[in-house]
Amino acid sequence: MRLLPNGAQERKLRRLADAAAKLWNELNYERRQQYFGARKQGLSERASLAHVDLKGTRKRMVPNYTEILGASAWAVERKNAEAWSSFRGLLKAKSKGKLPPWIHPAPPGYNKDRKTGRRKPWLPVHHEMYTVDPEAKVIHIPRYNLRLRFAGDVRWHGKQERMEIWYDEARRAWYASIAVKVGAETTRNGTKPRHIVQGGRRSIEVARPVGDKVAGIDLGVNIIASVVVGDGAWIIYKGARLKEDYFHFEGRIARLESEAARAKSVGDEKRHDRLRAEVRRLKRKWAARRIHLYRNLASHLIRGLWGRGVSTVYVGYPYEIARDNGNKYSVNIWAYRELIGAIEAEAREYGISVYEVYERGTSSHCAYHGVEVKRSPRGVVTCPVGDHRLHSDLNGALNILRRGSGVLVRGNLRPLSFIVDHNGVAPANSIAPTKGGNAQNPGVNLGPQGPG
Ligand SMILES: [Zn+2]
After folding, report:
1. Listing from the earlier edge strand, what are the strands of the sheet with 310-316?
2. Where do the segments described as Disordered lie (predicted)?
3. Ligand 1 centroid to residue 443 C-alpha, Å
4. pTM of the prediction?
């Protein structure tokens, strides 16, 4: 949530968050010294880790900060120890050959801004130090005598864990995130309702699948998602709004970047830095809008699939976009991971499983005959077997569904078409050109047997 501190609160937050960041760096410095000291003596990465004295550094350094930070000083140490432990886990996975070769685990880094070299304000708050009032929208931290107002809704209900507060330089705003053990109503030593966050949702899974149907999803640029359900439904989501946003933001960013370059060339560092900061802010804004749009799509899609009795979803990896159309536009507009993440998060709430299908050729081969198809720029593929035609987005989704689940849908498929917007998802007119044909009647020049 976004915090809305007043002037005095903001100064206090800065002081606390700088102390926490400083403690992180001091602890981490000692621990890195111990680690790299052992490395210099020729020890292996894993053997060097045994020389990092977490306990000793904790005992020696944390008490210097408890006067200013209270229990949060221990939360800083805890978080740093977690980072070292995750480094250990990665090294272990690497030694067992479980990590991809391009991942090189490294010890935890320092808290500092890459560009300015300054510490970034960051404050972890121990779970017993604060309470949240979702009605009044106030976070109360008695130890710091802070009552911080916040914007936004508290989504989850459950036992609160560590809260982290940080300052976002690009948005010039303070944020807090609270980890919630969803569904847990009591703490270890019985009920302690003041450390329960009273959010809206008590369970991550809000529903169970009502059927066992399957669906295949083909992700793309103009049609963000083309979905075929095992029962023969075909649903498409158009991405016109995403495209408009892309051109709007790209244009503004390009103008600012060239202005920044001009400022640099005449030695106006101050103006250059200001413009670069504005570029970063716009990029963040564009990403936020895109993610919001993806969430709208995912929520509409998954609720719809759940209503149709789908329990398993297969999503194709978009090799074709990565390869064929790898121009600036499609690469930038395309945030595959963000979209998959949104779909997976939504599916989790409905108990629907999501699998990714990493097979090539899902859009270049006929779903019915497995042979290579010719693609016209108008989004229609022509299969040489029987010379039938299919909409390419339908062909892709059919292939993904078949390769994922073995289910091949036949039937007179007509798309249900939607347009994804920032404030929701609305029905749109069909995109399927009637000439393009469909699964049962794959268009003109159908061979003697047809595809079936
Ligand atoms: Zn075919």
Report:
1. 353-357, 310-316, 213-219, 223-229, 234-238, 415-421, 424-427
2. 430-452
3. 11
4. 0.57
